[in-house]
């Protein structure tokens, strides 16, 4: 059974655009001060239009370095939808949305970077991958509870991934 949800990427884009208004020039350039490190893994992946070639076992491992102004840089290794080893090198920013308690907060995150790993017959499954490296922009919404974080990441119009990690 196929489900077509092409509007989800657009909704996420509009929502994150509104959140991006929290950006101010006083935050630029980001300071090179380390506030915390986040190590994450993938828990669940779902494609909006499942295909028999797709795998939902990404085995993601990532590390993010965050500064006090909520800017971040990171690297992630995972198996892409076609079971190929893939790297994502990125930078981005978090945008606080709600502080539910002293320990629990909700935030949006937007990262942008380069993907490498979509090869051979799957090379054209992502846009602009002519040289084997493609740009990517990934919005997410997440929750932090003490040192534990979890995110719902939208990867284009293809699907979503839920991650969880620990802050150090």
Overview in brief:
By secondary structure, this protein is mostly beta strands.
Descriptive report:
This protein has 168 residues and is mainly β. Helices cover 8% and strands 51% of the residues. It has one domain (32-167): Beta Barrel (Porin), CATH 2.40.160.20. An eight-stranded antiparallel beta barrel has the order 1-2-3-4-5-6-7-8. Strand 4 (85-99) and strand 5 (104-116) form a beta hairpin. The longest helix is centred in the first third of the chain and has 13 residues, at 7-19. It is globular and about 45 Å long. The N and C termini lie far apart (42 Å).
Order of helices and strands: HEEEEEEEE
Main sheet overview: 8 strands, antiparallel, barrel
**Secondary structure tally: strands:** 8
Average pLDDT over all residues: 88
Task: Output the radius of gyration.
Answer: 16 Å
Structural class computed from helices and strand pairing: mainly beta
Q: List the total number of helices.
A: 1
CATH class category name:
Mainly Beta
